[in-house]
Amino acid sequence: RFAHASLPVADLMANTRTTTFLGRDLLTLSREDLFVVMCVHGSHSHRWDSLELVAALGAWGSAAAESDWLPLLERAARLGCLRRCTIGCLLMRDVTGCALPADIGSRLARDTLAARLTDRARAAMFAEGLQTSPKDGLGGIVWESLALDKPPLMLAHFVARVFTPGTWDWEFGRVPRHLPRLYYLSRPLRLALGRFGRGGSE
User: Fold this and answer.
1) What is d(CA 6, CA 114) in angstroms, rounded to the nearest whole number?
2) Alpha carbons 56 and 161: distance in angstroms, whole number
3) Residue 109, CA atoms < 13 Å, CB-side half-sphere
4) Is 130 exposed, middle or buried (CB count within 10 Å of its CB: 0-12, 13-18, 19+)?
5) CB-based contacts of 82: which residues, under 8 Å, 6+ apart?
6) How far is CA 128 from the centre of its chain?
7) DSSP secondary structure of the chain
8) Are 137 and 199 contacting, i.e. CB atoms less than 8 angstroms apart?
9) Residue pLDDT tens, the chain, 202 long
10) Residue 24's beta-bridge partner residues?
11) Going by C-beta distance under 8 Å and a sequence separation of 6 or more, which residues neighbour residue 10?
């Protein structure tokens, strides 16, 4: 819901490939776009709370040729997903042992913020038996926001996540039908008090 701007449907569809599944020809994402989508999904929907998400990147990386990596990063940069893909690459390398080409590793190392976010995600992943703490509230939203490529996008994402109500808000309690804006006003307070799991993610 909050990552849609990074995954323009027309752009992804223009780059699709045809594959055969159970005897039928289907359109599927290109290899580069598949990696990007997995990184965006891992960052926004899960904040890398599952080893399975990183293992999927490892499967992609183990089948990748050395020449695949630079086009992948260039594609991620064009889509505005470079930092999220950098985090995905670093997690894949550190957790699954999938090696990155030396020049790609040095390129990724330039993003020190991505490295810090990766450290936090990796530590949370293994903190409680391969699960993140269910109470990350505002801290999780800050992590999501910092994983974006540009400060204006970080700020816009943070404000949207803090003030946009979702299922957690509706399940938390009813408000009078004629006062729906109370959901928007009460959400930041409940986030600050830690009354959400996963920061009320959708």
Assistant:
1) 17
2) 27
3) 7
4) exposed
5) 73, 76, 111, 149
6) 20
7) --SGGGS-HHHHHHT-EEEEETTEEEEE--HHHHHHHHHHHIIIIISS--HHHHHHHHHHHHT--GGGHHHHHHHHHHHT-HHHHHHHHHHIIIII-----HHHHHHHTT-HHHHHHHHHHHHHHTTTSS---S--HHHHHHHHHHTSSSHHHHHHHHHHHHH---HHHHHH----TT-THHHHHHHHHHHHTT-SSGGG--
8) yes
9) 666 667 888 888 998 999 999 999 999 999 999 999 999 999 987 889 889 999 999 999 999 999 999 999 999 999 899 999 999 999 999 999 999 999 999 999 999 999 999 999 998 888 765 444 444 577 888 999 999 999 999 999 888 888 777 655 555 566 556 555 555 566 666 666 665 554 444 4
10) 21
11) none
* pTM (whole model) above 0.85: no
Tokens of 159: 């404000």
Beta-bridged to residue 20, according to DSSP, are 25
- Whether the CB-CB separation of 23 and 63 falls below 8 Å is answered with no
User: What's the residue count for the chain?
Assistant: 202
The contacts of residue 11 (CB under 8 Å, 6+ apart) are: 79
